[in-house]
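Re: [ENG-882] Designed sequences occasionally contain unexpected residues at chain ends

Forwarding the minimal case from QA. Structure tokens:
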């Protein structure tokens, strides 16, 4: 993919999971990749692994919930490379819980990571991205378009990501910024089991990937390749599985029907 040759890409939450797969795909395409995370040891281990065949991947530890660390991160990137071509806002986490048992403090904590962390990084990156008609990739979720049961504050944070992505497009597309909202279903994790705390008071479905939604887990490597292609084509969104778009449309036309379909599609 000659398009990405020597372009500079920052991927938050890049040391594991989907973020690591996305960083790997950009590296294979010839980009200079900076992966970001809070765990310095895991970050540098992932960067070393991805750099074994000559790819350019480095790790910079930073916590996206801290403004001064975000500012320092992008200062380092610009000092080192002199440019920025893409930001992938991937850092975040899911959640489980009854909605009325999810406290305001829990909402606040998840918003700080899933949404405000993305806002902090975007605001720091955009002045540099605009110079190169660059890309912002915001990793949302199917839950960014349709809420689910027993996932606590998670859908609210991802709905916010979807709205923010649209606002960025409306205000900055004419200035050359491309914004891609990625709405994936459950991501294949191999043998890694997410940690959600005590789930004993939740239905069995809530303990499954995607809180039991009836879709196959996505291959992170394949999804990452699709993200790169969507960036090259400057698409506004990427929904996987694509058939989920029908649910989103029907839910807008008839919320009652949308709620029925969500229940029907949840194991």
């Amino acid at each position: 993919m000659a398009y990405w040759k020597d372009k500079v890409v920052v991927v938050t939450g890049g040391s594991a999971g989907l973020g690591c797969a996305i960083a790997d795909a950009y590296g294979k395409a010839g980009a200079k990749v900076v992966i970001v995370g809070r765990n310095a040891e895991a970050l540098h281990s992932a960067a070393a692994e991805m750099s074994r065949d000559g790819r350019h991947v480095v790790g910079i530890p930073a916590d996206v919930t801290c403004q001064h660390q975000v500012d320092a991160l992008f200062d380092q990137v610009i000092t080192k490379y002199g440019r920025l071509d893409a930001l992938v806002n991937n850092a975040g986490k899911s959640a489980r819980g009854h909605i009325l048992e999810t406290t305001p403090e829990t909402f606040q904590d998840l918003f700080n990571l899933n949404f405000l962390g993305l806002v902090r990084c975007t605001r720091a990156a955009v002045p540099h991205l605009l110079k190169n008609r660059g890309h912002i990739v915001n990793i949302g979720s199917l839950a960014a378009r349709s809420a689910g049961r027993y996932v606590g504050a998670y859908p609210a944070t991802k709905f916010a990501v979807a709205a923010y992505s649209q606002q960025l497009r409306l205000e900055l597309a004419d200035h050359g910024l491309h914004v891609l909202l990625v709405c994936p279903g459950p991501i294949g994790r191999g043998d890694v089991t997410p940690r959600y705390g005590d789930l004993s008071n939740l239905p069995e479905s809530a303990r499954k990937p995607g809180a039991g939604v009836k879709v196959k887990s996505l291959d992170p490597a394949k999804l990452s390749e699709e993200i790169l292609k969507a960036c090259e084509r400057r698409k506004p969104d990427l929904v996987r599985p694509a058939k989920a778009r029908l649910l989103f449309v029907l839910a807008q036309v008839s919320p009652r029907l949308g709620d029925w379909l969500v229940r029907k599609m949840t194991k």
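QA comment: On inspection the terminal residues look reasonable. The two ends are 40 Å apart (CA to CA). Proposing we downgrade this to a documentation issue.
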